[in-house]
Amino acid sequence: GNSVTQMEGPVTLSEEAFLTINCTYTATGYPSLFWYVQYPGEGLQLLLKATKADDKGSNKGFEATYRKETTSFHLEKGSVQVSDSAVYFCALSESNFGNEKLTFGTGTRLTIIP
Amino acid sequence: DGGITQSPKYLFRKEGQNVTLSCEQNLNHDAMYWYRQDPGQGLRLIYYSQIVNDFQKGDIAEGYSVSREKKESFPLTVTSAQKNPTAFYLCASSIGQREGDTQYFGPGTRLTVL
Predict the structure, then answer these.
(1) Average pLDDT per 10 consecutive residues for chain B, totaling 114 residues
(2) Which one of A2, A28, A92, B61 is least enclosed by Cβ atoms within 10 Å?
């Protein structure tokens, strides 16, 4: 079956540091890949997505590239801010007769200190 | 404003009682989903519905039930058969039937069994 493996947290960085959160996946076909962010006590918000190999998703300074050869979708940001503190989830969806089901990683908690 | 609403935000239940969590969306989405989130874990799919009057079990449907009588609404009932119901419950919706479809999440309901 499908699975997503994320970098273990928690991750603590200083403001303006470079961020990488690793994500690798296992899928039988050609999934779409997502990064979601969850702020304390809230639901998930879509951060970025990529639907085919070599696509780069980007939003709010975050980027991730769909690498089919390494089955990876690592999240990066060049300079983090305190407001980026949240839990980040990598996820994949694979269409099954038109049904899109998301498979999530366990999440990585990120804390940015001033 | 279009979006997904879940109510209540916090819910307390005595053991042995059924409880229903509300999820409403005004995005005109066909597909709706219920997930459960436990500390340190990713989200797990409980039930999903691609169209009104139709729904399918997800990965952890035991002890839960749903209905989809209206396009906008997808209530989840946590029954007394659910052995460990204390968790954060998230509802999501998407346009449906499309590869790479994005799911949009509500703010969640935190259920505590006393």
Answers:
(1) 87 92 95 92 91 93 97 96 92 83 92 92
(2) A28
Q: What is d(CA B29, CA A55) in angstroms, rounded to the nearest whole number?
A: 26
Identify which of B112, B109, B54, B65 has the alpha carbon closest to the alpha carbon of residue B85.
B112
Q: Is A71 exposed, middle or buried (0-12, 13-18, 19+ CB in 10 A)?
A: middle
Q: Is A75 exposed, middle or buried (0-12, 13-18, 19+ CB in 10 A)?
A: buried
> Which residue is associated with the tokens 């089955």?
A71
**Cβ of A100 and B98 within 8 Å?**
yes
Could you tell me how far CA B76 lies from the centroid of its own chain? Answer: 5
- Nearest CA to A87 out of B30, B105, B61 is that of B105
* Cβ–Cβ contact A88 with B under 8 A: no
Chain A: nearest CA to B22, how far in angstroms? Answer: 15
pLDDT > 90 in chain A, percent:
77
